[in-house]
Amino acid sequence: MPALHVCTIAKNEQVSETVFRLTLHAGELALQSAPGQFVNIRVQDGPVPLWRRPLSVYAVDRQAGSLRLLFEVRGAGTRMLAARQVGTALDLLGPLGSTFAPPPPAAQPILVAGGLGIAPLHFWAQELTQAGRHPLLLFGARTAAGLCAMDDLRQLPAELRLATEDGTQGAKGLVTDLLEEELATRQPEEMAVYACGPVAMLRAVMRLCTSRGVWGQICLETLMACGFGACMGCAVPARGPSPQASYKLVCKDGPVFEMAEIDLEH
Amino acid sequence: MSTDLTVTVGPLTLKNPVLVASGTFGYGEEFAPFLDLNRLGGIVTKTITLEPRAGNPPPRIAETTAGMLNSIGLANVGVEVFVKDKLPYLQQFSTAIIVNVAGRTTDEFAMVVRRLEESGLRIDAYELNYSCPNVKEGGMAFSASPQVAYAVTRDLRKETRRPLIAKLTPNVTRIAEIAQAVADAGADAVSAINTLVGMAVDYRTRRPKLATVVGGLSGPAIKPVALAKVWEIKKAVNIPIIGIGGIQSVEDVLEFLIVGASAVQVGTANFVAPDCAGRMVQDLERYCRQEGISHLADLIGTLQS
Q1: In chain B, at which end, N or C, are there fewer CB atoms within 10 A of the end residue's CB?
Q2: What is the distance between the alpha carbons of residues A66 and A10, in angstroms, rounded to a whole number?
Q3: ipTM
């Protein structure tokens, strides 16, 4: 059940030129959050910026009651958040949204992350490995600088493959090239794909999985005014039999969707 | 000393003047995790139409300075599902249930009201959405001209004895003329204001930030406009007013009451602080106690000008 929480900042580290990793004393919220879910943060008390900023849960430490978020400075709101000091109390709404569904027992989870899309998939990789599963993590970005939080990723007991568009780290090319290679190595039912990243990447992932008959889920990011299904601003086109348009709400129906539910082609 | 927060809006008695605005509070249920709905003076539901509506294509919202634009397009479940699945839930709360309705034509409007009347469920009032800027048909057209507003209100008046509240658009030259027209046609109150038509552009992509190009502006940015419109109606027309526009705090509530609103609706603020309307009720109580105000209603329309 989502609720309002006051959480104090334990750490606010800059991990790249534009990306920050925020660690919060979150108590109950840390216990309740599951991979794929997000929190909606009030970055200030006044009306500018007006909305909260939705951020995927990047990691939780249930024993310590801490919750970690990874965010990129993109505008005024995230700039304010980046400037918040240790000890500051933040108003968080959460946990919000849907969670990743476990992979079938015979399938290896393949996690495909583009840029900041690593945030929910890092949490998912943590949980999968704790459950005794062996995820393969494919992580891509434009340049090596976009492969953020590598210190955490290297600590995961998961196989990690990297790609950058300019070839500054890992394979030169797109993370979806890595996925395409991987999908060709096994039968469809031996794999379950989980993807988060830019829409163009997700579209390519969905095309690959659909053509190979591989089951998968995507985690979407959109603007949202509320985060809990009231504003209806975060609609995405749903895939359905009806020729009439229908939509799903990223905040409530998602952010994690079955690939078969969403239409990213239009 | 006990404090009486009760207000009346025409025939409608509210236990306090803090309502929540249509389109910002879902069907009520969405907010149950965050506040006790019994605290509220009333809940105005999302706009209900005859058929379900999927709403407009995304992007539907954009953040602006101290406000936001929306172009949701009256996405709703339609009156049948509303009567079956949504309205029954609200019955348990001791707060006014105000159902916001809309139609593309007067007939369709009437059919929605008729279906709600037949439901046998408690409805304390109807709010008539004459003023949505985000749908192609009908929408704002109903309150853009006094003649049309008069005609549709007169027809809807025949459908129900329950209080009718006409929600007015500020996107007209003289809002008081529209208020007068609906008053003459038998409306019991007006609510003002709906959103202002606005636009936002991304200069890098040269694209509008909304798929529909323009949408409705709400939030703290519009409060001064809303106060001015309430004042304009108050001076010219003898009809109770529910003030709406950028209310975020108890101070904002008090300002609207003083200018002449009998009650208020909290809108966009619900998105950001989903418990805020409940807190405003508490803050009103505290304010009245501190100031020795025994009947909050005594403040209404006390602007010194």
Answers
A1: C
A2: 8
A3: 0.94
